[in-house]
Structure formats: structure tokens, C-alpha cells
């Protein structure tokens, strides 16, 4: 796939343990850019409706695309009541589809919280203005600052100079 | 800020505010140190000049003539740039960076069209123009049509004539993948706009 240089890259060996855990931004790029094209290419033209595997793939495609649509709407830099309602529609479709496909699956608190995001989009506007990723980034920057793990030593050194 | 009576101190900070809220600016609202250090820069400031003045090739010159409806006085020479930076995004020519050369060109009230940047010209008047080729429509069934939120669409791999586009008309970059669909070669185009546009597809 051809992508601009600023787009977060996704590991070429995706799925192998060697690349470690994906970052949130890598998941988003994977989900909103690579997955829709790959999955639609693979599963959209499965025509054998009697085949259980084909039906399963089609349902999986529908459910995955609902989740991706919800992510795209939620992370858009602009929002509106219309978009918030559309987000909720896709998120509900995703969770309903998940329950149909995997009846034994136990939902997580995050999936419940995702249903409330539509309200927050209406109350507070686009997520970029209130999500905590900038703080995560700042923590990352602070963690990368070289230090000798001796708390307060630098301050004592300054006092000794005075 | 546009309201009457707005304190001048706030008005003087308009550059800061516009940088923080412009939804298409790449690093909007990333409140890290590097971000604040760069607040003095102009958001729309293009990057340093990176090309040299040469005679405009025949194809781009014809495109310029068409763009200006055959007006006289179109310069025969221009600075041919390799890349152009706008809102912290780099747009390159096709030969320099394939991914950075794929752009969506906006049309009023309609969905945007994918194009490939062939060359970038900076005229003696300092105005910059992208010389692009639009991707042609495909007659195949578009499987992305039923999922408008994905902002993806199917296009032919063939390109049209050279056309002039202003940098302000660029909506965003796009990602694309060439593949075979219904036994024909085509291209999936996925918008990388940070803003979700919901259009009723006109094609």
C-alpha cells in the first residue's frame, strides 16, 4: 500500500510476536487504512450463501466495518449531533454483531464505556480536545530524559555550589 | 475573536488559536513541549525553497494555459519544486515520493477526486501550483460504496490529463492499493483526512 511519510507505519510482519504490542496509533492506522481494503477484497465477494464459513466471514466483515466506522467517526477532528448519533449506531451494531458471532464472549467495561462516547461527543466536542494522549506523550518524553536514578542529588549539588 | 469588543490581547493570539483548532493541521492539540516551541511559526508557512528556476515543460505549460483560459503573459520559466510543505504536511512530486504525491482534490459540495502530483511550480509571482493528473473513474462495482464512513472508493489505475491545482484545494493525502477486482486492475483509495466528510456519493 502506498502511504504518505507522515502516516504511522504498521509492522510488516504483523501478527508475529517479534514486533511486540502495537501502539494505539498503530492500531488506528491498521484499522482505518489497511483492514477495510484487505477485508473487503477478501470477503465482500463471497457468494456462496449456503456455506457456513462464507456466512461467518460476511458477518465478521460487517461487524468489523461497524467498529472501524465508529473509530473513524469518533476520531474525526470535527463532530456534530448527527455524527455522534451515527457513532452510536455503528458501535451498537458492532456490539450486537459480536454477541451474535460469539455468544460466549464476556463483554469488557471498555465496551460499555464506548457506548457513552456519543454523549461526550455531544457535550465536549471532538475527542482531540479532551483525550489524554497528549499526557501519555508527555509522560513518554519525561521517561526518555536520561538520568542517574538518584532522586534529589542534582538539587543537593546546586545547594553545595551556593 | 470576531465579535465586537474582543480584547486586543486575545486578538493578538489569533495565530495560536487557529493553530490549535484547525482540524487539518497535523499536530493540532498535541500539547507537548515541541508543539509549544513551534508556536511562533506561521501555520501556512511553506518550507524553504528547494528547486531551481527552469523552463516549464510543454505539458505543464499547456495545463497552465488551460487553467488561465489561454491568457497572455504566462511565464515560460518557473521554479520547479521537489516538494511543498503546507500545515506541516509534505506534498512531493510522484518521482520523489509516491505516497506524498497522492492527494485528494476537493470539489465544492461533492466528494473529492484522487490525483497524483506530477510537478510543483512556483511562479515568479511566488504563487505555487501543483500540476496533477486525476485518477479516472472505473466502471466496476465499487464495494466501498455501501460504507461511506470509511471514506474509501474504487478508481481506475489510469490517469487523466495534466491539470493545475492550487495547494489550498488539496483536502488531504490518501493511501492507495492496486489490486484486481472483477478481473480488472483498479485502485482502492482511502482518504487520510482528519475530518470526516459525509457526502451522498454523486457518481
Q: Can you tag this structure with a few keywords?
A:
heterodimer; A: 162 residues; mainly alpha; 6 helices; 0% strand; elongated; B: 203 residues; alpha+beta; SH3 type barrels; 2 domains; 6-stranded antiparallel beta barrel; two-stranded antiparallel sheet; 5 helices; 15% helix
Kindly report the spatial arrangement of strands forming the biggest sheet of chain B: 5-6-7-8-10-9
Give the overall shape of chain A: elongated
In CATH terms, the superfamily of the largest domain in chain B is: Bromo adjacent homology (BAH) domain
CATH architecture of the largest domain in chain B: Roll
Which sequence of SSEs, written as H and E, runs from N to C of chain A?
HHHHHH
Unreliable parts of chain A: none
- Which two chains form the greatest contact, residue counts included? A-B, 35 and 36 residues
CATH topology of the largest domain in chain B: SH3 type barrels
Number of domains of chain B: 2
Shape of chain B: globular
Per DSSP, the total helix count of chain B is: 5
Roughly how many Å apart are the termini of chain A? Answer: 60 Å
Structural class of chain B: alpha+beta
Average pLDDT metric of chain B: 81
Mean pLDDT of chain A: 89
